[in-house]
Structures are given as C-alpha cells and as structure tokens.
Specification:
alpha/beta, homodimer, 348 residues, Rossmann fold, DNA-binding
Chain lengths: 348, 348
DNA sequence: TTGTAAGCGTTATCAC
DNA sequence: GTGATAACGCTTACAA
C-alpha cells in the first residue's frame, strides 16, 4: 500500500515469500488454476498479496501462457459514425467478461489496418475485433489485411469482423441492403416519386450496398432513379453538404433525398437550408443509422435504426466463445424510424 | 509469409538460427540497441525476419525490460463530449511517436477509474494519461485513484492528467473559468441582462468552474444572477433538456441561457423549441466546447472553442518527455465564437 | 562486434 | 496438495 519511493513492483515471489509458500502455490492461489490450494494457504497468499499491493504482471503471464487474455478492437476512426456505438457495445460486453480492450484506429485505410493488425499481433491478444466496412473491390491492402489476420488466427488468436459478409472470419454483419430497401420502400409508399440519392464513396462496400438497397426498394414501388439522381460523395457530413450543393447545381427535380447515412443527411440539410430552402417543405431528407448525437437536428431525421451496440456485443460473444467450426455469421437488421424530415406527401 | 496451419509464432531464436547468428545479435539488429551490429549481419537478420514473418513479442520485451513501451489512455466515457477530440489528439501524437495506445473508459466514476488504473498497472505501460474532470470535493475514490496513480509512478511509470489543476502529476488544463467568463462578458456586452445558468452537476469540478466563470464575467458587467437563475442538471443533453424544462416551470424571466456545455445547450434548445418558443427570438442560448458534431444544430450555437485535441497532444508530449522536475503544468485557453443562437439585443 | 548465459515474472510439468 | 525446476521470448551484462 504505502510503497516506499522508487520501489520496484511487487512480484509474485514477494507474495509467496511473505506468505511462506512457493511461487507455484502463490500463482495457483491468486490466478485461476485447475489445481486446488489448501484453504489456509489461499487465505495467507491473498492476505500477503493485499498487504503488499501485488498486481500481476500481465506481460509475464502472456509470455508464460503464450498469449495474453485481452482483446483488441480495430476501428475505422475515432470520429467515425459507428465508432462510438460499436465501441460502447464491445466495451460493455468486455467489462462483463472482465477483459481489457485495446482500441486502435485504422484511420479509414486498409493499409493502416494491415499495419495496425501487424502491430497488434505483437501484443498477442486473445482476439482481434475488426470493426469497419470493407472495399467493394479487393485491393492489395485489403488482401494484405486478410493475410495478416489469417496469420494471427493461425498462431492461435481469434478474429471477428463487424462488417460486410465475405471475410474468412467470424463476422457480425448489419444488413445494409435491406435497411436501405425498407427505408426507400416506406418513403415511396408515403408518396415520394422523384428521388435523389447521396451515394457516398463508390468503392465503400457499405455505401454501395445501401445504394443498392435504395434503388431496389424504390424499384419495387415502381420508382426509377435516373443516373443523374445518384450523387457520389464523401461518407461524412461534408460529403453530404457538397453533394447537396451538386444536387442544387444539377437542378435535379427531386422531392426526396435519400442519404446513405445520417451524417451525410445532416450535411445535406445544412446545404439546403443555406440555399434558403424550407425543410422539410421544399425537400424531404432521410438517412440511415439513427446516430444518437444527431437526434436534435431540425427537422428530426427519418432514418433506419441499426443495432450497432448489439453488433459490438455479438462480436465479443463470438470472440469469447471459440469454435473449430467454419467462420460463423451473425446477421442483424434495422428498422425504419419515420420522423419530421419526411412528412407524407399530401397535396403537391 | 505462408505459414503452415496452426503454427507457433516465429520467435527471435528462429530468426537468429535462420540468419546464422546468436539470438543476442538478432535482438540487437532488430530492435534498437546501443551496440552496433556488423552490416552484413544486420542485413541477414532483417532478411530472415522478413522471410519468416517475424513479429516481436512485446509481452516478452516488456518482461525483459521491466516495462512496456505503450501508453494507456483513460477516458470518462466513449460518449463523453471530450472523448473524441481528446482521443483524436492523443492518438495522432502517439502515432507520430510510433506508440500504441490502450484506451479504456472509466465510465464517469472515480471508483471505476481507480479500478481501471489498477488493471492498467498490470500491463506495465510506459505512461498513463488520465483524461476527465475531477470532483469538487476529494472523495474516497478520488483519493484511491490518486494513490493508484502514485503507485504506478513510483514503479517507474509516468502519469499525465488532462483535467483541472491540482493533481500531483503532470497536468494539461483547459481554463474553464476564463472560457466561461469571456463568454458571459461578451454576451453581457451584447446587451443581455436577464440570464439563467444551466449549471450541470454541483460536484463536477469542470461544471463548477464554468459556473464560477459565468457569474464572474457577468458580475464584471454589472449583471447579477439570482439563485433561482442557477439550475443544476446532468452534464449531458438530457440534463440540458430537463433543466430548460425547470427553467420554464420556474418562469424565471430570462433572455439568455448560459449552458456549461454545448451538449447541455442543445438539450435546452430542444426543450425550448418543444415549448413552442422561437429561437433565438424568444431565447438566446450559448454553450462551451464547440463540439464539432453539433455544428449543424439550429440556430447555430454560440460557444467557446476549447482546444481539446491540442490538449491531447500536449499530454502525450509530457508523457513522452520525462523529467525529474516537479509536476509540470500546461495551461490552455479557448476563445469565444459568436453565432446565431445569441443575436445582439437590438430593441427589446 | 559477437556469443554465452543469466535474468525478467509467471505458468506448467512432474515428482513428492 | 505442494514445491522444485524447466520453460516462455526477449534483453543485457559479461566474456571472448
């Protein structure tokens, strides 16, 4: 407790000596072990540990056991829409399982992700959870990333992806296609016919799937989106902002803008308002994700609620419940939330 | 590269053997060392490492060296207003310094924080950065936390706090008092006289300091805030929402609401709008922090921009530049940003 | 400069 | 059940 200044950390041996037992017994008493330790020793060791303020050295444990018992979480970026909800889900589950989580950002780049996984490998974590959408095409760095993860798995680590299906690892996927389809269909049913899609980056899988869903949902209701009605943009607020500008410039006749994400939608809202449009009167806007922090924008945003925290939880479950079986897949779906930004079309 | 299935990780010894040198030489060649290694061996070892796909086991390194070389970042919570900007600053600086960062949440509780630091200690990181405001009073768990950190420092780790001044560790502090004072004074100069303060939790140091700053800044301009004009609430959006409701209920005559944070301000905005008020016509609202994700609320929020990312950077600098000197202190200040939510009072 | 060998703190094996 | 003792992978005196 009141350790003298500049002291070295208390080791297991210190505890053992103090308790009058062997280091082996102390180890068995303090950390789990198949073996039982006599109650008296148990007590003595625990007492000694507390008195000395012993804290196990996890690095040493990792060396001895061949692998640490913590988890690593790779996210696209700290400012990413999905970071917060996913991380919250993972962290909560991790806490319940009494596991430490190392979070690290791959900054939206497969190259960085590959590097990051490589670094992570050196920590010998129990599992790596990779959160973040992949590319449409399989790029060099995407492949490198998969190799790196495969190598990790090969060494005895576990890999879980929260992303689109298709990686050769346990995966938790949110159904972007049907989320977008449901939203589009619902709004078509509300009467919208002339639709513009803010499509995000052409090479991002998540964006691609959602656009696919939008067009499919609209098509089911007999609504066509002309090529000029699909505007690609960045997967963030500024992307939505400039895409909305482009939308204005092109003078596409539209009564509804379908954005691939809430953040993009909010950017669009800002741009339209700047153009003097009345919202939602002059233009209806909807997004996907139901980002919590955006709940106070005006008009309140119609969106699809996607269970990101649950996905995080599920990912940790997969990570903690190893299996020899083929890669497992957990699919999750969202549900449409209608709000003020897309009033029904009464009499236009 | 193409490791056979189920293989054990490549060790330094494997590399050494392959390169035809001793493990010692391989170690010196791959990881920094005072010693020089003959160029030929250097090359051979590096080649062998690449061929074998060697990745150093940081756990083993940490055991051998007595301490790891990664950093740990303790944040209040993933959904915290300050999490994202601070973490971004820290992570960026860490990346520049080629350091891994373990992030972990203390979930707004000193008790959790103490526990978390204890766990972190077991990882033997180079430094622990503690981000998050402290309490007004020194509670049991606050003290426990400080003890835990002190013990860590005693063992040779470094501690840096991003919080209010006063902890016995290197500290980066943002001047909450003057931020609030500047804002209040500026708005008083704009003509506001009847002011209500959404004060946040009474025991949170950050909130306390900002309220102090508000009243001081107003007092300097001859504006008094009656006791009923100070409403305590949660340090989040919902806190602001309900406090604004309370404000309405009390029928406090006010033309300006000063919220201790942007998030609280946004909650208030929502509540006022719900009450049918026109904003900013019927009520001016201002916050503090300049949270990026809130930039699209309407009306645009007057606030004080606080350099959180820079604080994160500065904290990492302190962590990476050890010193024997007394705890160092880096003070940072913000600047007022006037926007639409607080138009000047023309003729009321 | 290089190699040998002794640690680092912990766990696992195997006698007792 | 317990305790030597040998790993674990790496670093670092100390010799050579």
């Amino acid at each position: 407790m009141d350790t003298p200044s500049g002291s070295a950390p208390v080791t297991l041996e210190d505890v053992a000596r103090r308790a009058g037992v062997s280091p082996a017994t102390a180890s068995r008493a303090l950390n789990g072990s198949a073996r039982k330790v006599r109650d008296e020793y148990q007590a003595r060791v625990h007492a000694a540990a507390v008195e000395l303020g012993y804290i196990a050295n996890t690095a040493a444990q990792a060396v001895a056991r061949g692998r640490g018992d913590h988890l690593a979480l790779v996210v696209n970026g700290i400012n990413d829409d999905y970071f917060s909800p996913v991380a919250a889900g993972v962290l909560k589950a991790a806490e319940a399982a009494d596991r430490m989580v190392t979070m690290i950002s791959s900054r939206n780049s497969a190259q960085q992700a590959a590097r990051v996984v490589s670094t992570l490998r050196s920590q010998r974590p129990r599992a790596i959870v990779l959160a973040g959408g992949r590319s449409v095409a399989s790029t060099f760095w995407e492949e490198r990333l998969v190799e790196e993860l495969a190598a990790f798995q090969d060494e005895g680590g576990r890999v879980v992806a929260i992303s689109e299906e298709g990686m050769p690892f346990d995966t938790v996927s949110l159904d972007n296609v049907s989320a977008a389809r449901d939203l589009a269909a619902t709004l078509a049913d509300l009467g919208y016919r002339r639709v513009t899609i803010l499509a995000g980056p052409a090479d991002a899988r998540t964006a691609h799937d959602r656009v696919q869903g939008f067009t499919a949902g609209l098509a089911e209701r007999g609504v066509e989106v002309p090529p000029s009605g699909v505007i690609h943009c960045g997967f963030d607020r500024d992307g939505g902002y400039s895409a909305a500008g482009e939308c204005l410039r092109r003078r596409v006749p539209a009564e509804l803008v379908l954005a691939i994400s809430d953040t993009v939608a909010v950017g669009a809202l800002a741009r339209f308002r700047e153009a003097g449009m009345s919202l939602p009167g002059d233009m209806a806007v909807a997004g996907i994700d139901d980002v919590a922090v955006l709940r106070d924008v005006t008009p309140a945003l119609t969106t699809v609620r996607l269970p990101w925290p649950e996905a995080g939880r599920a990912a940790l479950d997969l990570a903690l419940r190893p299996t020899d079986a083929q890669p497992r897949l957990v699919r999750m779906t969202g549900h449409v939330v209608l709000r003020e930004s897309t009033p029904g079309i009464e009499g236009r």
